[in-house]
Amino acid sequence: MDTATAKFIQLMLDRAESLRKKGDLSEALHAANAAVEKCEQQLGPDLDHIEAFVTSLERRAALYLELGQFVEAADDLKHAIDQLDNRPDRIGHVGRLYALLGAAYDGQERPEKAISAWQTAVLYFEKNEPPMQMDVAAISNNLGFMAKASGDLGKAEDYFLRSLEIMHAEAGPKHEETASVSNNLGAVYLAAGYFDQAREMHMMALETRRELLGENHPDTAQSHNNLALALLQTGDRAWARRHFEKALAGFEKLGTAFAKDLESVASNYSDFLREEGDASLADLINSRVKEVLARV
């Protein structure tokens, strides 16, 4: 590839990224289109041409994903994967493309296709030298969600456990993503009726989120709610009440942007209060939440 063409392509990709960061996705897509078109005009068998073409397709696909144009994203990603077929020096890159392809299929609500793409991504990440463990953890987490959504709690547990093992080894227990996986695993255990395990996973997630994110964060508030639900199942009703209160207070402080989360927590807490015979407080909480929802 000649220098002028290479510079033009890079200029368009840099412009697309700059516009994306500013939130102007429509103009960013035009710049990405220009990069892809130039690559298609100049496409040849040499590796420089192929690398530029794949990069341009990948960048455009990422923009399509942000714009919710999932069919277009999948088409670009499949084309990019074809360009790198039989390239042992690009195993990790192919894995990344399959990971994005899974997201594109997930956006199209095609779970079987998404699962297949993500499983293929994991295979490539594992074959890379060295293995791309953090990427394996991230995709295993995605696969755990898919398995839980399909009702296969055993498979969901396997995926989340694998993700958690890698996160502990690679990032450590006090990491935001480690807490996220602990929370997800706790949800599986709660659904499966393993309440003590659910309690411990949600406790670990909450401890980390409090330390890293503070009390005034939506993830921390959600962990208070999730732990409260687990504590109810292990008989710790007084303790559960305190965590419901913290979850409710957290989402009330966060304002209307988290109105749906507030509504969910308020519903859980109100049900608990009515079981405890405190219907007046439950009614008061529901009134407060209705005021917030009316402002949305």
Summarize the structure.
The chain is an all-alpha fold.
How would you characterize this protein structure?
The protein has 14 helices and no strands. The chain is mainly alpha-helical. It has three domains: 67 residues, Methane Monooxygenase Hydroxylase, Chain G, domain 1; 105 residues, Alpha Horseshoe (Serine Threonine Protein Phosphatase 5, Tetratricopeptide repeat); 103 residues, Tetratricopeptide repeat domain (Serine Threonine Protein Phosphatase 5, Tetratricopeptide repeat), CATH 1.25.40.10. Helix 9 packs antiparallel against helix 10. The mean pLDDT is 95.
Explain the layout of strands and helices:
Layout: H1 3-21, H2 25-42, H3 47-67, H4 70-83, H5 91-107, H6 111-127, H7 133-149, H8 153-170, H9 176-192, H10 195-213, H11 218-233, H12 237-254, H13 259-275, H14 279-294
Low-confidence stretches: none
| Name of the CATH class of the largest domain | Mainly Alpha
Strand portion: under 5%
Instruction: Compute the CA-based radius of gyration.
Output: 23 Å
- C-alpha end-to-end distance: 54 Å
DSSP, total strands: 0
The fourth-level CATH homologous superfamily of the largest domain is Tetratricopeptide repeat domain
Shape descriptor reads: elongated
**Largest sheet: number of strands, sense, barrel closure:** none
Amount of helix: over 70%
Which fold does the CATH topology of the largest domain refer to?
Serine Threonine Protein Phosphatase 5, Tetratricopeptide repeat
The whole-number mean of residue pLDDT values reads: 95
Q: Helix count?
A: 14
**Alpha-beta content class:** mainly alpha
What is the CATH architecture descriptor of the largest domain?
A: Alpha Horseshoe
